[in-house]
Amino acid sequence: MKQVLQSSKLAGIRYELRGRVPRAAKELESLGHRILNMNLGDPAPYGFAVPEPIVRDVIHNLGRAQGYSDSKGLFSARTAVAQHYQNRGLLDVQVEDVFIGNGVSELIPMALQALLEDGDEVLVPSPDFPVWTAAVGLADGVVRHYLCDPDNDWMPSLDDIRRKITPRTRAVVVINPNNPTGAVYPEAILRGIADLARQHGLVIFADEIYEKVLFEDSHIHTAAIAPDLCCITFSGLSKAYRVPGYRAGWLVITGPRSASASYREGLELLASLRLCANVPAQHAIQTALGGYQSIDDLVRPGGRLRLQRDYAHKVLNEIPGLECVQAGGALYLFVRIDTDMYPFASDEDFSYELLHDQKLLVTHGSAFNWFGSQYFRFAFLPSLAEIEDAAIRLRTFLRSRSLSPLREQPKKPEPIDSK
């Protein structure tokens, strides 16, 4: 039989979150090894319960969920999404501005395909969530990565964005809170990006899937900063409501409707071609957005996610040669490896060797299109005990790979009680 070749469109498309290192982890598991997994952004394996009212509503409506919904989604779900943003100051959002999808990962390619001509450029942060880079390429666009500055708490560099804009630039992507760095952007940064988009006629894609996973900082919707611009906001139930398997996400298009009429038609066409998003999970949206926000219990002081974030930040920074900025949101720490101490050829090699040596799985930084010094992403969804175990394995592994013997800092003697 003649060889069946993959499309040339896939040349250069990468998704390393399911790449060489995770594949090696699956092979080791198949051989009976237990892998300590610190690379997942999925709350389900770590004992985070789905809010019971969400499960009940999905079950209750199963009998009415066999058929197709409207291609843009159930009216009740879209109404709930519109009201969610109205309550946060985006008063102009209407039901017709909302598209429901099988998670944000389905809606990102749809939004890009409806906009881009061959060779159009999109500004994407580095590091990024890699679906963005891949989806631009699959839409025959060109990615131009702009710097999120590790020396400025991973804030986007407005100067670098400005330098990367060309006559072919059509859009800028803002991931806030950021995956993988955990950065939450202040109003000044968002206004700076909006000003550049305004000056150059750019569409803004605002990926806000972690909008409720916040520890200290408040979240500002990019669309609220740029009501005069075409802004597409993405969010969903996967993270805050711990149901990534339900695949319930949405996009909301804001800005002057007359200016975006053609683009809206394109979105509706693509939404119709996939018929509709899965209907059972759409019944979860109204209940989730309107009910008690249990994520608040997890992120406030004393909450499980807050405790795990703080502990992971502490134990990782105590390991010689590792350093990370505290995460203001999301579920990850982005950890720098001191390459003067540890001679790894690449961060992917670091992750691969760590997996085989210590059966510990993390995600290398270049998987997120970070091309600077070596980093890895560490998810703090696992328990405190698992985070401690991971830190011990990291310390053991790095000690064996150091160019010079690592010396533990001596503990200070306990003060003598004069009594």
List keywords for this structure.
419 residues; alpha/beta; Aspartate Aminotransferase, domain 2; four-stranded antiparallel sheet; 14 strands; 36% helix; 15% strand
Query: What average pLDDT do the residues reach?
Result: 92
- What is the CATH class of the largest domain? Alpha Beta
Overall 3D geometry? globular
Radius of gyration: 22 Å
- Counting copies of identical and different chains, the oligomeric state is single chain
Termini distance?
Answer: 89 Å
Weakly predicted, low-confidence segments: 406-419
Structural class: alpha/beta
Per CATH, which architecture of the largest domain?
3-Layer(aba) Sandwich
**Helix and strand element order:** HEHHEHEHEEHEHEHEEHHHHEEHEEEH
Q: What proportion of the residues is helical, as a percent range?
A: 25-40%
Strand order of the largest sheet: 2-9-8-7-6-3-4-5
CATH topology grouping of the largest domain: Aspartate Aminotransferase, domain 2
Short description:
The chain is α/β, with parallel strands linked by helices and 419 residues long.
How would you characterize this protein structure?
The chain is built from 14 helices and 14 strands. The protein is α/β, with parallel strands linked by helices. It has two domains: 132 residues, Aspartate Aminotransferase, domain 1, CATH 3.90.1150.10; 239 residues, Type I PLP-dependent aspartate aminotransferase-like (Major domain) (Aspartate Aminotransferase, domain 2), CATH 3.40.640.10. An eight-stranded mixed beta sheet has the order 2-9-8-7-6-3-4-5, sandwiched between helices. Strands 10-11-14-13 form a four-stranded antiparallel beta sheet. Helix 1 packs parallel to helix 13, helix 2 packs across helix 10 and helix 12 packs parallel to helix 14. The chain is globular. The C terminus is likely disordered.
